[in-house]
Write a structure and sequence with these properties.
Length: 102
């Protein structure tokens, strides 16, 4: 009984942390080449995405996808993603904690 109680308490302590971190999107690999796996840019000229507002990231990605933001590089990178994939990517980057710049 005691073990069960301790296990339950541990789960309760871990669950909220898990809930905040979204699953790693399948399409993250390409994005990571420029924006980093955790949203800190890897190349000059690419913006950091870590911790940006979810609604902002979602809107920006939608704008690249449909051409309202006419940036060939990002349009090619985002490609014809579904709304669900776009949402996953925005959630992932929004949930990252910005690292201190060296
Ligand atoms: C080849 C490099 C490259 C790749 C790959 C790439 N990006 Fe970008 N991304 C950029 C650059 C450069 C910009 C700035 C474009 C501009 O001026 O609007 C940008 C802009 C963005 C922005 C807008 C940020 C802001 O503050 O407005 C988002 C969001 C974004 N990228 C997400 C992604 C996602 C998600 C992927 C993967 C599907 C991806 N990018 C792949 C280079 C890249």
């Amino acid at each position: 009984m005691r073990t069960v109680l301790i296990a339950a308490l541990c789960l309760a302590a871990v669950a909220p942390v898990r809930a905040e971190m979204p699953a790693r999107p399948a399409r993250l690999g390409l994005c990571a080449a420029c924006h980093g796996e955790h949203g800190m840019a890897q190349i000059p000229g690419a913006p950091n995405l870590a911790g940006q507002r979810l609604d902002y990231l979602r809107a920006a990605l939608g704008q690249y996808r449909d051409g309202r933001r006419d940036v060939a590089l990002m349009k090619a990178a985002i490609g014809p993603v579904s709304d669900a994939e776009l949402d996953q990517l925005a959630r992932w980057y929004s949930a990252q904690t910005p690292a201190v710049q060296p």
